[in-house]
Design a protein that fits this description.
It contains four helices and two strands; from the N terminus they run ααββαα. By secondary structure, the protein is mostly helical. The chain has a two-stranded antiparallel ribbon. The longest helix has 37 residues.
Length: 147
């Protein structure tokens, strides 16, 4: 089954949009939590920036550990089981409440789910989210002058 360049690009864009929405949701939740921590501790935006920095590195470390292959079969990129014809059947990702919440956010709610072979892993999406969390901390310091 040969797909046109436009169709392949569209399918990859849908998968990337799903991943970016997930990462932005992770960063948004972390930022909101950091702001609450900053207010509760009395440090305001300075403590929020520090909390974002620490949480960003913790989420990145967790994502890297989860991305690390644990056996040689992980390097082949096959997820799911194999049907009698030899084709890989993608396993359904465990639906978490957070994933269901993200699936209800625009623009993801208006898009079809990505094809199983193009879906980015939750670990990769968390890694992308950690980069956005660290970016938020960096921007708070450099752009907004929160020292």
């Amino acid at each position: 089954m040969d797909r046109s360049l436009g169709e392949r690009l569209q399918l990859r864009t849908i998968a990337l949009t799903h991943a970016l929405t997930y990462a932005l949701a992770v960063a948004g939740v972390a930022t909101a939590g950091a702001l609450v921590i900053g207010v509760v501790t009395g440090g305001g935006l300075v403590h929020a920036k520090i909390a974002l920095f620490v949480v960003g590195w913790l989420v990145m470390g967790y994502a890297v550990v989860r991305l690390w292959p644990s056996e040689p079969g992980d390097l082949q990129g096959k997820s799911g089981s194999v049907d009698p014809t030899g084709e890989t059947i993608a396993s359904d990702a465990a639906k978490t409440r957070f994933q269901e919440l993200v699936n209800g956010l625009p623009p993801v709610r208006w898009l079809p789910p990505p094809r199983p072979w193009l879906q980015l892993t939750d670990e990769f999406k968390l890694f992308l989210g950690s980069l956005l969390i660290l970016l938020a901390s960096f921007l708070m310091e450099t752009v907004f002058g929160i020292a």
